Amino acid sequence: MIKQRAEQLKNQLKTIEGSDSPIVRWGVLLSVYLIVQQWLIDPYFEWRDETLQQLEANQHQIDSLTALKNSEEKWRNALTKSEQAMTATGQAFITASSYALAQQTMYNQVQELITRFQLKIDSQRLQEAKPAPFGEQIDLQLNLSGHLFDIISFLDALSSAEQVYRFEQLYISVNGEQASLRMTLSGFRLQTPESQPTQASAPTINVPTTEAVADTELK
Fold first, then answer.
1. Mind telling me which InterPro entries this protein's record contains (predicted)?
2. What are the CA-CA distances from residue 114 to residues 120, 122, 159, 178 (Å)?
3. Which among 130, 131, 128, 141 is positioned nearest to 203, based on CA atoms?
4. Contact present, 175 and 213 (Cβ < 8 Å)
5. Is the distance from CB of 181 to CB of 143 less than 8 angstroms?
6. Is 205 helix (H, G, I), strand (E, B) or coil?
7. What is the value of pTM for the model shown?
């Protein structure tokens, strides 16, 4: 087909060379233009339009895949942050399966700090459960005595512990380098679907209270 059109174009050009008539020359030139347009120009524009349409379709597909990838990355990032938040929450609260076990866990942690800072337990008492938005509140009443620096270190260790504790009704009585601490310490049990119902009453621990001399009381 291309060879045939080339021969046709060649013959038309020869006609121009062999003719002195302007009408013939213009007629042949018009024929040559039509042949060139049909043979070269029109196919080019058709190819260009098809190519542009294909490029637009490819770009649309790329944009869709990019948006999907970004959405997947955002979803994965959100899921990762959610998992990290859940992990942090689990570390901040006591996750025992029952209130009694949560009490024991909190008591053991506090007892470990009392022993570390060589404080004397004058009295201690675990309270019944209190409802909290995320589970249950565990209260432990403490009366401790010891060196003032050790009591301050004990409170600092509680405030910087991995699990969340709240100080309520905190009093410190100072006598020289010695001090007495009276406080209610609150911990929190995170309630989960696997948690057992709260015990009707909480176990209590009582230690005979020793006499403490108080020159100054800080509230």
1. Transl_elong_EF1B/ribsomal_bS6
2. 8, 12, 14, 15
3. 128
4. yes
5. yes
6. coil
7. 0.50
